Every structure is written in C-alpha cells, then in structure tokens.
Amino acid sequence: MVVNPKGGSGKSTLATNLASWCAHSGYRTALMDFDAQGSSTRWAGKRDARRAPIQAIAAYERPEGVTRTFQLRLLPGTERLIVDTPAALDVRLLTEVTRDADGILLPVLPSDIDIHAASHCIGDLLVAARINARTDRIAVVANRVRQNTRIYQALMRFLASLQIPLVGILRDAQIYVHAAAAGLGIFELPPRLARRDIEQWQSLLEWTNSRSEHPHEQLRTVG
Asked: For the stretch 31-69, what's the b/e string if a residue is b when 16 or more beta carbons lie within 10 angstroms of its beta carbon?
C-alpha cells in the first residue's frame, strides 16, 4: 500500500511501477485505486494488451446496483495487490485502509512542506494506526530527488532521524513520465533507457519481496 495524505508526492508513480514490476516478474497482479483522480486507473487503461496483465480496480467509484464486495473482488489466483490511496486521508481512514497491509510505502519529496506532512503521517501510522516500526511493515521512499541540493540534505537528515527504513532514493527523471504515458513501468522499457533508474529501485524491490515472503496476513480485498 502506498500512502501519503499530501497530494503530489508520487504515490501513483510508485504504485503503477510496483504493479508493472510484479506483473512483469510473472505474478498475478491487481492494482486497486482509491484516489478520485484516477491516475493509476488511467495508467492501467493505457496498457497494451500484449503486456503482462494487471487487474485494475477503480475503488474510488461507487457504481449503483453493485455491492462493494463485488466491485473490489480480486481475480482468482491473485498473488500481488498494490493499493494507491488518496490524498487528504484523515486519521480514521488511514488507520482503516492500512490495517491489513503487508507493507506500507510512504513517498516523500524534498521540500519543507512535504517533510512536515510526512512527519505527521508517520506519527499517525505509529500512534493512531498502532503500526510497530520494528516490524518493518512501513518504509519510506525519497522521491524525485536532486542530489547535492540543500533541501535534499535536509530530507536525508529528516529520514535518518526516523526509526523507519529508507528503502529507496529515486531521482527526478522524465523517464517516469514517458513510461506512464504508455501505460508502462520503467521495468518494461528498453534497459538502455532505464538502467540507472532500475538500479535505484533494487533496495525498494528487495524490501517489497521481503514483505511478500512474510505477509502480515492472508491477501484479501481491502476497503
């Protein structure tokens, strides 16, 4: 599950690229989109049918005549479920949606506003949602960073002060924009174009795999 109550932090970028990596790696994958902007849903709609399939669930919709359970059902045999959450989650909803997540990723941008918002979100996860930082169920990703800047150094100091693992430092690169426009993840691009960025994902993917190997509980529909 990818969370951050502040909009524009890159939740959909993380969610769609995680989903594409899972599918590209041979897992039966579902991508559930709770964000009313529908960025992950639109991304999935752009995918070529020849690509590894991903079940897209527009969880932000409330169609008439359809039960919530039926709407959010996963296809039989689903092995990986990636959840993209909306901005402006209050503490109650944050607690509810993260309760059954095997892994919770929090993307943080290098800005004073984003650092402040992330600190509040982490506090809510640890206190209100009662997530134990020692279980490694929550991790942070530094997103859209430009190294050798003062705000990047401030972000690194903030992240170093946490008792939560930093599992990825992703650069600010247009390759994510180009991939998203085609309904792809960077792992599905020609290696010569994405090698540097794929290397930056390795620790994040290792953490994701570790959460899948030691799940919080059985995979089930959320929401």
From this structure: bbbbbeebbbbbbbeebeeeebebbbbbbbeeeeeeeee
Cβ–Cβ < 8 Å for 21, 187: yes
Which bin fits 173, alpha (ψ -120 to 50), beta or left (φ > 0)?
Answer: beta
Confidence of residue 97 (pLDDT cuts 50, 70, 90): confident
Residue 209: both structure tokens together = 């795999």
Percent helix, strand and coil across the chain, each rounded to 5?
45, 15, 40
Structural element, H or E, at residue 191? helix 191-200
Q: What is the pTM of this model?
A: 0.89
Residue type, 72: L
Residues 6+ apart with CB under 8 A from 137: 101, 102, 103, 104, 131, 211, 216
Residue length of the chain? 223
Alpha-carbon distance 30 to 82, whole Å?
A: 6
pLDDT of res. 223: 46
Ordered structural domains, the chain, with CATH: 11-213 (3.40.50.300)
Calpha distance 139→19 (Å, rounded): 17
The token duo for 105 is: 């990723």
Residue labelled with tokens 């039966």? 28
